[in-house]
Amino acid sequence: MLNRVSRLVSRSAAVAVFGALWFVVVGVVPVSGGVSVDGFGVVDTSSGVWYLRDPGSGATTSFYFGDPGDYPMMGDWDCDGVDTPGLYRQSDGFVYLRNSNTQGEAHSEFFFGNPGDVPLAGDFNGDGCDTVSVFRPSESRVFVINVLGAEDGGLGAAEFEYVFGNPGDAPFVGDFDGDGTDTVGLHRVSTGLVYFRNSHTQGGADAQFVFGDPGDLIMAGAWTAGHTLDTVGIFRPSEGAVYLNYVNAAGAADEEHAYGNKRMVPISGHFATLPGGDEPPPGNPTLVTAPVFAIGDSVMLGAKGTVEATIPDSSVDAKVSRGYRDADSVLASYLSRNSTPGVLIVHLGTNGPPAASHVDDLMAVAKNIPRVLFVTVKLDKSWESASNAALKQNAARYEKIELVDWFAFANPHPSWFAADVNCGCHLWNSTVQNAYAGFLNSAVFSE
Ligand SMILES: [Ca+2]
Ligand SMILES: [Ca+2]
Ligand SMILES: [Ca+2]
User: Fold this and answer.
1) Is the pTM higher than 0.70?
2) Which tens digits make up the pLDDT trace of 100-114?
3) Among residues 237, 439, 446, 216, which one has the least CA distance to residue 347?
4) From ligand 2's centre to the CA of 343, what distance in Å?
5) Which of 29, 343, 425, 433 is the residue whose CA sits 20 to 30 A from 444?
6) Sign of the alpha-carbon torsion through 212, 213, 214, 217
7) Does domain 292-444 sit in CATH 3.30.1330.30?
8) Ligand 3 centre distance from Cα of residue 181 (Å)
9) How many contiguous H segments (helices) and E segments (strands) does the chain have?
């Protein structure tokens, strides 16, 4: 998310830090302090705390910005060469921008996009100013606009739009070819596949490669001195670690940092001078996340491969017409052949509500498993609410059962289930398969 002006500004600052010989040939006033490269940070979206890591000193600067659940991003909203926080509230499309890496109110707010859209912050026309565009996952469509809104107003229509990528992939932004204009890349969380385009036009990827592991979260930045283009980095929630790559290609990371924990998401940007002096983000508390064994019916069966590819160290046993009455024997059979899993996921109830006695039988077999996740059901059948009510009641009877609400997550997305005219429940396209696997993965790494 650098632009040309900010690069020149920041390189001039690099003289002091790296001793590099560099002449600024345009009339740009050097920023004092700071370093020339992009930094990364993490945001605890459950509390709204931002942690920015100074790429020169490694010192952390932290502050509150936003409400729990807001989607964090960074950009240069006021065109001064420094990236600062922004938030996108996916429920109503509201954007909140702040022009300083300090605690305080938003400097501007406006709305753009539809509920569920994912924000894209970048300089999409190379004018030195970042704006907020959106990616609509349901259509794999990018909507670009090169102005910011203000004063609670709407932004109107996008300036242009195009289709890019496969449903379910997560978008990110960078200047991947160093021409001063940011474009859109996509990341497949289930496999680590990264692909991007260097123009805002419809077409295949200009480059693609695999970086990182399933479950990693993507970002981009100019991580090293002298770089004029953005390359990939990933945040691994399961480890609380950041891996930065100096090239847009597969291979071992060039930098590795322990930073953040499983509740956090990564951001990156050109921070210029940060005050520092704050505690780094807390690392991962001891949370058992593996191995994962998942028991399901025909719903989970539809996403078996995606789930196993997305959740680290997981295996799925799913079968058509299965119910809670079968869960104890399925688990007993698994335990006879494998070591005790750290996490048991049970997604049954599609074929009828669970009886308390069946849950008791299952929990007796699961007595040595530290965590048990019961997943609610989403289906167009009369017993949907009875199944979910019974799941909730039974989960409340056991302290170690965590209720994971697939119904609440999936119900706003009827298009995910459009192909299934019988029960509106099966995972028959890659969009819903990726959404389901990502949803379960989040549950495994959340308390
Ligand atoms: Ca700025
Ligand atoms: Ca721009
Ligand atoms: Ca570019």
Assistant:
1) no
2) 999 999 999 999 988
3) 439
4) 46
5) 425
6) negative
7) no
8) 4
9) 8, 25
